[in-house]
Amino acid sequence: MTYDQIELPDVSALRVGIIGGTGPQGRGLAYRFARAGLRVVLGSRSTERGAQAAEDLNALPGIQQPAEGGDNAFACQADVVVIAVPWEGHAATVAELAPHLTGGKIVVDCVNPLGFDKQGPFSLPVAEGSAAEQAATLLPEARVCAAFHHVSAALLTDPEIEKIDLDVLVLGDDRDAALQVQAIAGKVDGMRGVFAGRLRNAGQVEALTANLIAINKRYKVHAGVRVTDL
Amino acid sequence: MTYDQIELPDVSALRVGIIGGTGPQGRGLAYRFARAGLRVVLGSRSTERGAQAAEDLNALPGIQQPAEGGDNAFACQADVVVIAVPWEGHAATVAELAPHLTGGKIVVDCVNPLGFDKQGPFSLPVAEGSAAEQAATLLPEARVCAAFHHVSAALLTDPEIEKIDLDVLVLGDDRDAALQVQAIAGKVDGMRGVFAGRLRNAGQVEALTANLIAINKRYKVHAGVRVTDL
């Protein structure tokens, strides 16, 4: 059973909500999803900023489906909800939205718990093991996956860039949820969604972002990863 | 300064010692280094098994430089020493060899602290942060790097495979040592040695091996990583 023989579900009718849709990673993912024809709902702490972010997004070239915007609770109504907030606000935001993320809703955590000092980036310890496991603890009625950690906001938001040349490592304990997240990644031109293990192995995938930042700094690039032999 | 503009040192005259040279990863790396024309010294707990491993290696096709073998202390006489022992014996082996690994010797740790249960692989906590940082603590007079975590022993040891298609993430706090390790990786056909940060960011690179094993299991492959945009 090789990669291309594993059938991914049809996710073209799903609505994807973005919590933290006004931040660079959230806006970048939203842009790529909207270019891929997915229906995107941008969430923000403020309804007005969420609506404004959707308006800004819809003015960018290549949008196949106009995005909607509102507050984070509004974005939680989507079929799949991506958490793209800064690590500092992660636990509080997720806990606050927990009442909206029930019924087996697919939640995709793409938050990287990183610190920075004069020697560069480093991974922060997380009591639950990872941001994704923290979300899973706070959202017992959701199906939490981890994905989209290594995408460069600079590449995602650049309209001139047609293809996002990397693999998205998707982690999760619910096979159906993971397959849907893989399929969403696969809608973006150039991306593949690759299943990369259970949620207990999410911590190192989040932390690897520190290494990619170190690579970016050394080589002046926007590094991502591809899985070889796949 | 892009990847190919960073000049790597000439390492063709260096001798590379392998601690744990009779294990699958150690033998595999030794084979690839010897095929690339590097002088390899295989170390083992037993002088006889180390010598036998070298004899076996030299019988494989494509060897450019015959390997030597002996005990681990003998392998420590090489210019660069690769630690490729099982995690279980890591601390004890490194501590025992510390008197031989002084004078700024380059030591390359490629050990992955992993556990396995019925749900598959997972990363083990390490008090020092990573196997490589444990080695650095035990070897204050060596220049410890971390590298070669994601190479598949099955691919390395298969004489039919000409190219090892992956990037070796090299971590270290000593720039010159890291460059030499990158250059050694770059001698192997298909491999690139990519600087991926300071030693404090080695833990997630070691732990990522659990994800690659999960990928191998799901897709029936021998997964490695390539850094994109480089």
UniProtKB/TrEMBL annotation, chains A, B:
It holds the Pfam family F420_oxidored. InterPro entries: NAD(P)-bd_dom_sf (IPR036291), NpdG (IPR010185), P5C_Rdtase_cat_N (IPR028939), STEAP_metalloreductase (IPR051267). Gene3D superfamilies: NAD(P)-binding Rossmann-like Domain (3.40.50.720). Keywords: Oxidoreductase. Residues 15-113 form the Pyrroline-5-carboxylate reductase catalytic N-terminal domain. NCBIfam families: npdG (TIGR01915). This is NADPH-dependent F420 reductase. It comes from Dactylosporangium maewongense.
